[in-house]
Amino acid sequence: MVLPVYPDGCCNCQGHVKGCDNICNSGMVVDECGVCGGLGIPKKYCNCEKWTTNCHGECSPDEDQFDECKVCNGPGIVKPFCDCDGHKNDECGVCNGDGIDVAGGFCSCDKKRPDCNGLCGGPVGVDECGVCGGPGIVAPFCDCFDHVADCNDECNGKLKVDECGDCGGTGIEEGKCNCKGEKLDCKNNCGGGVEEDKCGVCGGTGIPEADCDCLGN
What we know:
By secondary structure, the protein is largely without helices or strands. The protein contains no helices and 2 strands. The protein has a domain at 154-204. Strands 1-2 form a two-stranded antiparallel sheet.
């Protein structure tokens, strides 16, 4: 049997060559790390020994890296600081914050205000009369000075109900004996109909028909 003779380096008449696996036309090649059919240097490494690029930009076996403040091999944020600029947390736990807004009248981080007794977030308020924890205006009073409303519902007004039940009225008229405007009769009965006759007799019949005066003449 006579073996075929191929051009130098070829493994068949078509000019193909053997791969690194010694198979004709397999296409397998040795990668940059010397591995037949290998994938080369993995993306996160900088050489075949699996070194990484440190924070100085050098391919190194050491795991140098930037800290959270972008300092090469730095310590990062170190207490009591809260950021990379050397700020600290305020009393409310806010980095570089202003703390409790005392100037705004607050006494806590959650925007509470002191009550009138000075207790932060306390329940005691100032009533409408300016008294801390006071009851405010209490009936029958109409203001904070213990005034009452008059009959016209005016606080501290001067109108009163007269004896006839009229608000601001003048009462029984002079010369009258009741609110109806009636007068006393001659028997001193209010609204009575008894009158004096011509002779001055209360309830009298006056001059008899046969007489010409009150003396019987």
